Amino acid sequence: MPIQKLLDELEQKNAEALAMGGAEKLAERKAQGLLNARERIDRLVDPGSFIETGRHARGIRAEVRHKTPADGKVAGFARINAREVALVSNDFTVLGASSSVINMKKIRHVKAVACKRGLPLVFLGESSGARMPDRMGAPGRAIIAQDPTEYQRLRESPWVTALLGQCYGSSTWYAAMSDFVVMRKGAVMAIASPGVTSIAINKPVDPEELGGWKLLTGVSGLADLAVDTDEQALDAVKTFLSYLPTHNQEPPPEQPVPAGSDEACRAILEILPESRNQVYDVRKIIAATADRGSSFELKERFGRAAATVLARLDGKSVGFIANNPMFKGGALDADACQKVTSFMVLCDSFNIPVVFLVDVPGFLIGLEGEVRGMPGKVINWMNALSLVTVPRITVIMRKSYGQAYINMGGGRNADEVACWPTADLGFMDPRVSVNVLYGVKEEDDPERFRQLVAEVERDTSAWSLAALYEAQHVIDPRDTRAFLIRALAVHRTRLRNGVGGHRLANWPTSY
Fold it and tell me: Is the pTM of this model over 0.90?
């Protein structure tokens, strides 16, 4: 056959693949303000860097082969900010991007390359679930579960998922395994679609209640961030990856320090109230301490008594774990425990030092917490903390009470502990202590109550902790940024070139 004829055939096959599900379906998406699978890739990656794998793949069954260009999943390799990544973008215009024998082979190949070669893996999720004809009966059983490590995470490199539409089946599973999940409002993620679910439970199911953004970001915590558009979701993917190394055997990338980054911390006392019982938003403390404009919060709507924020100090990535008195007075509940533990796993797995900013009245006690297994979550946190190998620096700002003192990096659970002069190291609020220990209420005997409060508060100051060398430093709050930069420089993991021990690498991705 003449070479030109073969080249013409190649051109035709390329055009068929690039046409995706056809002009009509692509026009429908455009009218809805949604990017298609290939437009999403173009928006995400550096121009001209995408190399596609499996462009000419087709569904394995004869009856669908003609209408499955690229078999509904566009996969390959590209660069984001000049760094190599592997990616899969689901093409909902082709049989709803349903998972099939062939396109799952594509995912397996891209995933294997990412793990073996040390590339971040990005999933752009939108899929209807399994392609049922491929999965039905005994023959269908014989083509799945052929990879015993398909759902294994050893965190060789970061995984990121953007939920950009209906997400069932593989889009759900890979989101649940990812280190960061961003979703477009209006997207839905669940095990099965509302239609299938409503039949199974014999009552109508609202998609938003089943797996909408409010549920995933605020109740289950399976999504880290919700945004309004595809474009914003893809930008969030790029932002998240900018804090992380390409793989776990290198330190995170460094960025130039923005001008004026030292100024905000000098005004930090304007954020912190003088009254111990007055609330404030700890995220403002983080923003004032970190490099200017570098704060990127994960799971903002979930476990809000704690804030988990990626940021930079002196151009280098750090992870802030901070109690937030704005929510539940900073008392840690079951969701906050789960959130903090997963954040420590992320930081340790990818060589990001951890900074604790402490203002914690303890754990939120009560029936709800016990029903949710709160003791186990507290100890999960402690187990994870004991396994962290990256530098850990603790700054006790105000309250650090009870067991939460330990969980928030007190004692030998940090490499350095610093106190602000406002630090309070009691076991619980002094006024509550007097009630519990002595059964005295202020309204019954004001003078006796005052005396007992003073007694309980004895030896609970920053100076008392420093005198015992349980805090190595007492610092002016306005010097916090400078202290952290210097302390982290001392504790940088030099013997391993900035790489930690990754003892949390196989910790469950959700639990």
Answer: yes
